Amino acid sequence: MSKLILLLLILFLALHPSSPRPEPYAMRISCGARLNVHTAPTNTLWYKDFGYTGGRPANASPTSYIAPPLKTLRYFPLSDGPENCYNIKRVPKGHYAVRIFFALVAEPNFENEPLFDVSIQGSQIYSLRSGWSTSDDQSFTEALVFVADGSLSSCVHSTGHGDPAILSFEILQVDDKAYYFGSNWGQGTILRTAKRLNCGSTLSKFDADYNGDHWGGDRFWHKATTFQQSSGKVRSVESKIKKASVSPNFYPEEIYQTALISTDSLPELSYNMDVDPNRNYSIWLHFAEIDVGITNVGQRIFDILINGDIAFKDVDIIRMSGGAHMAIVLNKTIAVNGRTLTITIHPTKGNAIINAIEVFEVIPAESKTLTEEVGALQTLKNALGLPLRFGWNGDPCVPQQHPWSGVDCLYDKKNLKWVIDGLTLDNQALRGFLSNDISKLHHLQSINLSGNSIHGTIPSSLGTITGLEVLDLSFNFFNGSIPESLGMLTSLKRLNLNGNLLSGRVPAALGGRLLHRASFKTATWAGLGFSIFQTAQRPM
Ligand SMILES: *[C@@H]1O[C@H](CO)[C@@H](O)[C@H](O)[C@H]1NC(C)=O
Ligand SMILES: *[C@@H]1O[C@H](CO)[C@@H](O)[C@H](O)[C@H]1NC(C)=O
Ligand SMILES: *[C@@H]1O[C@H](CO)[C@@H](O)[C@H](O)[C@H]1NC(C)=O
Ligand SMILES: *[C@@H]1O[C@H](CO)[C@@H](O)[C@H](O)[C@H]1NC(C)=O
């Protein structure tokens, strides 16, 4: 028996001399599609739409020839809530390129070009700019994120300029160490692709079009035959480039087979791009010496300046890469205060050359809301029958630009998590009941549910929210008696229960001790139309 296993093992090893790295995880979703889709020319599989929290399917009108050739999209009218998400489960722990293509709803009466915000794992990564649908590399957003807990969530947030619309959602695994740039790199940061240029190339292409390694994450390389400021001349070769497709970034060899080279009359090459101010950017510069006649160390030397500061001094590609037709990548992360990023190749010997440029915005990953509290809010959402327009999808507190409405958040510095300290849902036409799970929101200081049609009893679990200072349940249909447990709320400053259908006696603790410190408004014993309103002075 064991001999047989050994034999099989030897046979297996003989047939697979060096077992290749497995294929990376890839999940592609065709938003709004009712069936799986295969697209040409690579026969790529796009799953039918799943994992969304709301929105509606519609036909897509493509914006850019680089968008995948899909026919449907999902759009999110404001009446479905201001934030909607894709929540994908069972994503293996790892490092991922997440890419979302936008599109326009193919119907005449739809406002063109919705502008909205996009978040991944609770961090806002992108705001669509007006004019995006006419610019190829703005028809999608892409970011590198880590998945630690098996799920990946990405949300769109309405900004009041049309309905967000999503053509596709891709989750492509990359190397665990991809784009390692130094000590700040890791789980705490997200890298959003701001620009990726294949200098000297006349065609824009994806890694897949270059037969690139799948572990590269199928990057999009925008053609660049000129920089606005300094034109340069295009050089392209067919020779093999060594050290291109290596770990951890697996760049396609072809991006090194073209370059922009400055001319004698204008020896500097300078690339300018607009950026959002006061952010950190990680800049990756690609070189391979492909110029005829430059074969030795010392023939071409240049400094690289980023926004005027020297980032790399005396770069000599042949010396650093080991020879002609060998790839080398330099990376530098810098803070940018202004609205422009300028990369200048300033030669001190020969002309300037550049093969490719990548610019990432370094985004600090937001802390999330305490899981137990998110769960409690979801239970409350269902129990209270919160209208669709509230949304309440994704994370309640982050991105900080788009918290759930009616929810007040507080950052708990000790646990590095957000918690809920206020619930303000007065006059929202809520018709459900108040779930006992409200007590799982341990950090609540204030609850106002006044002026709704909430029925059922007041949960006695409220008595365990020890920090509660304000509890206003007035003008609802709460019935039964006031729970004794409310007497345990020693921090309570205001308690409004008037305008309900409560019966029985006022708990002794409320009627006695508490009244000395709290403003206490209770009400109406059923049928009697009788109400008490008392305000007590704090003890002097
Ligand atoms: C990027 O640069 C940092 C330091 O500047 C270096 O430690 C790191 O290895 C570089 N990353 C890659 C992938 O070359
Ligand atoms: C930029 O990086 C520096 C140092 O790594 C850090 O202190 C700063 O908070 C970062 N700024 C932003 C906006 O992320
Ligand atoms: C709760 O909301 C109602 C209605 O908007 C408001 O009148 C009341 O003052 C609020 N209660 C507290 C304790 O702030
Ligand atoms: C409270 O009202 C509900 C109906 O909304 C009823 O079923 C229940 O018996 C009432 N409870 C009390 C204690 O009156």
Automatic annotation (TrEMBL):
<dbReference type="GO" id="GO:0016020">
    <property type="term" value="C:membrane"/>
</dbReference>
<feature type="signal peptide">
    <location>
        <begin position="1"/>
        <end position="20"/>
    </location>
</feature>
<dbReference type="InterPro" id="IPR024788">
    <property type="entry name" value="Malectin-like_Carb-bd_dom"/>
</dbReference>
<dbReference type="InterPro" id="IPR001611">
    <property type="entry name" value="Leu-rich_rpt"/>
</dbReference>
<dbReference type="InterPro" id="IPR032675">
    <property type="entry name" value="LRR_dom_sf"/>
</dbReference>
<feature type="domain" description="Malectin-like">
    <location>
        <begin position="29"/>
        <end position="362"/>
    </location>
</feature>
<keyword id="KW-0732">Signal</keyword>
<dbReference type="Pfam" id="PF13855">
    <property type="entry name" value="LRR_8"/>
</dbReference>
<protein>
    <submittedName>
        <fullName>Receptor-like protein kinase At5g59670 isoform X2</fullName>
    </submittedName>
</protein>
<dbReference type="Pfam" id="PF12819">
    <property type="entry name" value="Malectin_like"/>
</dbReference>
